[in-house]
């Protein structure tokens, strides 16, 4: 078998899948793992997901299909289970019942029943969740260094690239305490992007941001959609932000999905819960 | 009442189980120590270098008080020459390791609980998990290893300073008036390598307790700024209690 054939076989085989998910990350001495450079959107199926806290049901039989490469928003009032649903997708919470399949793989199946993860995901937290003891650059490069994905010079290049993508070029050496709320959010996005994720999740990305910064953030997410092939899930109660960005939107209320559709369909929905949410969110000018 | 006692017993059993599980996981990640050396050294600097001045100050006065009180009592019976042995043994076997560990628990253990607790409250631990970085390996392992190394080192300095301070008081105080060479000879006669090893072993175990409790309490933090404050206090109290319990059992075992 020639070298090229071997390479091609590896690329399509289990090894390629494993190294794409970087489940077996070890330093290989190359400039960068080839599979790190690629990212692909992943499809997500949520089947009959239920979760209670202290007997209080938070998610009640959630069913969702999110297509690969899609920007999908989950909207709804505060305290209806949006963030809990997001945490289930990244395995920070365990469901009482139900399944979540990413690219057809049940992420909660016992380890021996599923193959190693072959996708990368990252999450941008509501509070940004930056590590205060690290600089901006160290925050962005943390995953790359911990997983030893690349050599140090390449890691520094990636950090610069990702910070440029979110409009924070040259801010590598700042401490996170020196950043504004909007800048922190953008660093958190850059940190997530450093993984070249196949799936990125945003938890209330516009919370605590002024309208101008929210708009900038929307542009960053739209840019990413154009440049990188990844699936995006946004949880927000900022209706305008969600409708502007998303390919499809789901509305969650009282732990249940009450409506799914394109932004236009959601706006035209006759569902009273959706209409109530839309018209209490965008009030317009009093008296107009 | 029975229900309350039962609940308390269940809570203690749960805490003990969780602490043991965390300890096992932290020890498991010792194998990853070489790739976490910068973090371990940073923690060692925080535990060792930054606690050093206050540890020395504490040891200085502990040694002086010990020599003064014991020396004056011994002088009543004309046996003050034995003061070197008493101060030496007390500092090496008990006061050096215990006082240093209590100091580290108050200064470092509380800050570990606050730091890890703040990370828990502000979703940084969740962020670590989504970055596929195990929080126990990233946070607890370097802290435990750092304390296991730095606390005995601090105890060595504390013991040396305490002994020197005791010698100084013994020589200078006119009622005790034991010259340095008599003080030193008496001390050397009773201090064996075995005693020094016992003291170091105690300091190592106590250092481990401080780091482990700080991390465990930090990981269990919830409830915002108030929760962080509660964790800080809880870490100090729990460390103190466990240090005293461990001190008794170690002393009993090494008799």
Task: Provide an overview of this structure.
- The complex is a heterodimer of chains A (288) and B (255).
- In chain A, the strands form two sheets. Chain A has a six-stranded mixed sheet with strand order 6-7-8-3-9-10, sandwiched between helices.
- In chain A, a hairpin with a 2-residue loop joins β1 (44-53) and β2 (56-66).
- Chain A is globular, with a radius of gyration of 20 Å.
- Helix content of chain A is 38%, strand content 21%.
- Chain A is an alpha/beta fold and 288 residues long.
- In chain A, α5 crosses α6.
- Chain B has helices at 2-28, 37-49, 52-76, 83-121, 124-130, 135-172, 180-190, 193-219, 224-253.
- Chain B starts with a helix and ends with a helix.
- In chain B, α3 packs antiparallel against α4, α4 crosses α7 (180-190) and α4 (83-121) packs parallel to α8 (193-219).
- Chain B is elongated.
- The A-B interface holds A 22, 87, 90-92, 121-123, 125-127, 129-133, 142-143, 146-147, 191, 195 and B 115, 118-119, 122-124, 126-127, 129-133, 138.
Question: Short summary of the structure?
Answer:
The complex is a heterodimer of chains A (288) and B (255). Chain A is of the alpha/beta class and 288 residues long.
Radius of gyration of chain A: 20 Å
Distance between the termini of chain A: 75 Å
**Mean pLDDT of chain A, as a whole number?**
82
The interface involving the most residues is between: A-B, 22 and 14 residues
- Percentage of residues assigned to helices of chain A: 25-40%
Largest sheet of chain A, in brief, is:
6 strands, mixed
Alpha carbon gap, first and last residue of chain B: 40 Å
As a whole number of angstroms, the C-alpha radius of gyration of chain B is 21 Å
Question: What shape does the CA trace of chain B take?
Answer: elongated
**How many DSSP E strands of chain B?**
0
Main sheet attributes: strand count, strand direction, barrel closure of chain B: none
**How many extended strands of chain A?**
10
Structural class of chain A: alpha/beta
- Strand proportion of chain B: under 5%
SSE string of chain B: HHHHHHHHH
- State the helix count of chain B: 9
What is the 3D form of chain A?
globular
Specify the helix fraction band of chain B.
over 70%
Strands of the widest sheet of chain A, in order across it, are 6-7-8-3-9-10
**H-E order of chain A:** HHHEEEHEEEHHHEHEHEEHH
């Amino acid at each position: 078998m020639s070298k090229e054939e071997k390479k091609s076989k590896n690329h399509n085989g289990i090894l390629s899948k494993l190294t794409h998910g970087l489940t077996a990350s070890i330093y290989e001495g190359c400039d960068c793992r080839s599979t790190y450079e690629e990212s692909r959107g992943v499809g997500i199926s949520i089947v009959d997901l239920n979760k209670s806290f202290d007997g209080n049901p938070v998610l009640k039989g959630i069913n969702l299909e999110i297509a690969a490469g899609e920007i999908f928003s989950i909207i709804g009032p505060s305290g209806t289970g949006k963030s809990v649903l997001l945490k289930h997708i990244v395995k920070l919470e365990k469901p009482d019942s139900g399944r979540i399949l990413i690219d057809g793989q049940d992420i909660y199946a016992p380890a021996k029943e599923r193959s190693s993860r072959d996708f990368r995901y990252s999450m941008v937290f509501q509070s940004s969740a930056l590590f205060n003891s690290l600089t901006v650059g160290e925050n962005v490069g943390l995953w790359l260094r911990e997983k030893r994905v690349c050599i140090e010079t390449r890691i520094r290049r990636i950090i610069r690239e990702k910070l440029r993508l979110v409009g924070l070029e040259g801010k590598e050496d700042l401490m996170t305490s020196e950043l504004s709320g909007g800048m922190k959010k953008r660093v958190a996005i850059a940190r997530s992007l450093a993984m070249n994720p196949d799936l990125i999740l945003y938890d209330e990305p516009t919370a605590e941001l002024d309208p101008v910064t929210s708009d900038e953030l929307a542009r960053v997410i739209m840019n990413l959609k154009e440049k990188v092939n990844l699936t995006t899930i946004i949880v927000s109660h900022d209706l305008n932000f969600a409708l502007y960005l998303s390919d499809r939107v789901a509305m969650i209320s009282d732990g249940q999905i009450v409506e799914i559709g394109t932004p236009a369909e959601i706006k035209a929905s006759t569902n009273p819960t959706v209409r109530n949410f839309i018209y209490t969110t965008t009030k317009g000018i009093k008296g107009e | 009442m029975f229900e309350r006692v039962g609940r308390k017993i269940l809570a203690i059993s749960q805490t003990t189980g969780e602490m043991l599980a965390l300890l096992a996981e932290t020890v498991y990640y010792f194998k990853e120590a070489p790739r976490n050396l910068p973090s371990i050294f940073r923690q060692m600097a925080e535990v060792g270098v930054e606690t050093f001045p206050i540890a020395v100050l504490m040891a200085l006065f502990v040694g002086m008080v010990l020599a003064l009180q014991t020396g004056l009592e011994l002088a009543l019976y004309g046996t003050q020459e034995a003061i070197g042995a008493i101060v030496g043994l007390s500092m090496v076997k008990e006061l050096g390791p215990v006082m240093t560990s209590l100091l580290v628990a108050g200064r470092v253990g509380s800050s570990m609980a606050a730091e890890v607790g703040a990370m828990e409250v502000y979703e940084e631990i969740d962020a670590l998990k989504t970055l596929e970085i195990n929080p126990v390996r990233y946070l607890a392992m370097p802290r435990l290893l750092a304390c296991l190394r730095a606390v005995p080192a601090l105890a060595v300095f504390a013991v040396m300073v305490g002994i020197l301070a005791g010698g100084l008081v013994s020589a200078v105080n006119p009622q005790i008036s034991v010259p340095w060479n008599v003080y030193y000879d008496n001390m050397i006669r009773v201090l064996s390598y075995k005693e020094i090893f016992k003291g170091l072993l105690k300091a190592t175990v106590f250092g481990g307790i401080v780091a482990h409790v700080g991390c465990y309490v930090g990981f269990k933090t919830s409830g915002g700024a108030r929760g962080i404050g509660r964790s800080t206090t809880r870490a100090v109290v729990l460390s103190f209690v466990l240090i005293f319990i461990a001190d008794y059992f170690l002393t009993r075992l090494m008799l």
